[in-house]
Amino acid sequence: RRGRAPCPFPAGLMWLQQRDGAGLRHTCEQSDGLSRYGWLMHDGRSFGTQEIRDGALTLTTEFVKRPGGQHGGDWSWRITARTEEPGPAPLLSLFFYVATDEQGTLRPRLENGTRLAAVTGHTEELGSFTLTFLPPTADGGDGPKHASYNYLDAPSPGLHRLTDVVRSSLSNRFVFSPPGGRPRRRFFAVDAFRGLPASGEQPPSGGRLLLHQVTLEPPGRVEVTFE
């Protein structure tokens, strides 16, 4: 999501189906081979539902905005992942990020050193805010969903290169260990930022990226709140 202010802080979603040859997705382009993407309903301001079909995976995103205060109000954002994959579905990683340029501040709130539970921050346009990442639930929203968590804190080179930052930070040294004695699986996750190739551009000074990665077995649901 991006606000309508002249200098909004970027916050959004990337996703990765954990299979051989699968790529990190950030934007929906006609060249990506996605079978469907677009809004199912929205009013352009206070609510919206969109659907993205990436192979057997369907991502449904929903947002609701509550007006109030001096900076546009609060909003909540829900992402539901379902799959029609025959047999065991590949693991799915959802990457929720927030970034600022030199004029904003971000502070991570971690649980157990690996789960980014919330981000508090301040920008000139929005004032003080809290972005909270709730633990995933089952598809119907009932009961917790087992997940693995990873976290990245890196310099932000600008919105157009955020995908490169995440891609350069991925490592496959992580293991997903589901309950009930089911097979363990190795997966790619953000580990450490290793820098980017020089592009000749002058990156924003003081820009910062905070990213929360949730890896789970579809179906599942994740909710984010902005206050």
From TrEMBL:
<dbReference type="InterPro" id="IPR038518">
    <property type="entry name" value="Glyco_hydro_63N_sf"/>
</dbReference>
<dbReference type="GO" id="GO:0004573">
    <property type="term" value="F:Glc3Man9GlcNAc2 oligosaccharide glucosidase activity"/>
</dbReference>
<keyword id="KW-0378">Hydrolase</keyword>
<comment type="similarity">
    <text>Belongs to the glycosyl hydrolase 63 family.</text>
</comment>
<keyword id="KW-0326">Glycosidase</keyword>
<comment type="function">
    <text>Cleaves the distal alpha 1,2-linked glucose residue from the Glc(3)Man(9)GlcNAc(2) oligosaccharide precursor.</text>
</comment>
<feature type="domain" description="Glycosyl hydrolase family 63 N-terminal">
    <location>
        <begin position="2"/>
        <end position="135"/>
    </location>
</feature>
<dbReference type="GO" id="GO:0009311">
    <property type="term" value="P:oligosaccharide metabolic process"/>
</dbReference>
<dbReference type="GO" id="GO:0005789">
    <property type="term" value="C:endoplasmic reticulum membrane"/>
</dbReference>
<dbReference type="Pfam" id="PF16923">
    <property type="entry name" value="Glyco_hydro_63N"/>
</dbReference>
<keyword id="KW-0256">Endoplasmic reticulum</keyword>
<dbReference type="InterPro" id="IPR004888">
    <property type="entry name" value="Glycoside_hydrolase_63"/>
</dbReference>
<dbReference type="GO" id="GO:0006487">
    <property type="term" value="P:protein N-linked glycosylation"/>
</dbReference>
<dbReference type="InterPro" id="IPR031631">
    <property type="entry name" value="Glyco_hydro_63N"/>
</dbReference>
<protein>
    <recommendedName>
        <fullName>Mannosyl-oligosaccharide glucosidase</fullName>
        <ecNumber>3.2.1.106</ecNumber>
    </recommendedName>
</protein>
